[in-house]
Amino acid sequence: MQVNLKVIAGPYKGRIFNFTQHDSFLIGRTPEAHLCLADDRFFSRNHCLLEINPPHSFLRDLGSTNGTFVNGKRVREAYLQNGDRIQGGETILVVEVTTSVPADLAETTQDAFPSRPVLVMVECLNCGRREQAQASDANERMTFLCEDCRIELKRSPQPVPGYDTVKLLGRGGMGSVMLGREQKTGRAVAIKTLLPEFAVSDKAMQRFMREIDVAAALKHKNIVEFIDRGTHNGVVYLVTEFVDGCDA
Fold this sequence. Notes:
Elements: E1 2-9, E2 16-19, E3 23-28, E4 35-36, E5 48-53, E6 56-61, E7 68-70, E8 73-75, E9 77-80, E10 85-88, E11 91-98, H1 103-109, E12 118-123, E13 130-135, E14 142-143, H2 147-155, E15 163-171, E16 175-182, E17 188-194, E18 200-201, H3 202-216, E19 226-232, E20 235-241
Parallel strand pairs: 3-4
Antiparallel strand pairs: 1-2, 1-11, 3-5, 5-6, 6-9, 7-8, 7-10, 10-11, 12-13, 14-18, 15-16, 16-17, 17-20, 19-20
């Protein structure tokens, strides 16, 4: 199975993004975005995030100023289906879901991405509840948070090792942002927690962490300084310098 995001309008018209395993896809003006629209002022720096686990796709607006639209309707969150249109400004993407891998990719993806995922039992890392989830094979290790725990962790974020929580700054579809204090140095930091919508394989989690490391290597006066990242009880956390201001 595969999910494609096809850009049918805007500066990147004709470009296609292919997903054959669990991944995330950020759209916005920030240089770290997978679809970077730096010159389009319609978009916020971190505008919206797609979480893709073929054949499923889930979109979250990240508190953008001008909103994210699916099939002409402004949304905060949306489960995406084949044929859905995602729009912001002049840019339009179409979601395409296929049930088989294209012939030219079959040889390179056959071993890594089986066409028929299996159902496995996964255990919530926070409460221990067991549920079924899709995996590429029966022995794949998964990171999973149940829906009840996701809701509770957004309402009352858990502490992150090495940091004291000062106050909650905001909540979103993905998790929460907190003002914290680094225990070693005492400096103020911003702590962002990310709660996966789907069960995530350990391989996908490692790949996501590598992407964070790549973004963290960027140094620029207009980019917030990266401090730390990790996972704790199934929750991904990012620690950056605290900047007292607002996103635009």
